[in-house]
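User: Hey, my collaborator sent me this sequence without any context and asked if I could get a structure. I don't really work with proteins. Can you help?
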Amino acid sequence: QGSEFRNKIWNEICKIPAGEVLSYTQLAKNVDSGARAVANACRDNPFPGIIPCHRVVAISGLGGYMGETQGKLFEIKKKLLALEGVL
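Assistant: No problem. I've predicted the 3D structure and written it out in structure-token form, which is a compact way to encode the shape of the chain:
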């Protein structure tokens, strides 16, 4: 479904336990990359119900969800994090 890099990011995202978050920057450091590249991989996540990219947040806020920083998709991120007890 994705490049080797994106699969690497998605695999790392799957390691984030429910109820915890990791910043784009922290995840980028874990894979020796940049935060923007990690955010782009999150945006391109083909299986958001399986690969929990909602657990990746910005250093100063929630960041985005599936390429949106507001609207219906972003509200889904907030609800998922609330269900997991993060918000």
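In plain terms: The chain is about 45% helix and 5% strand. You can pass these tokens on to your collaborator as they are.
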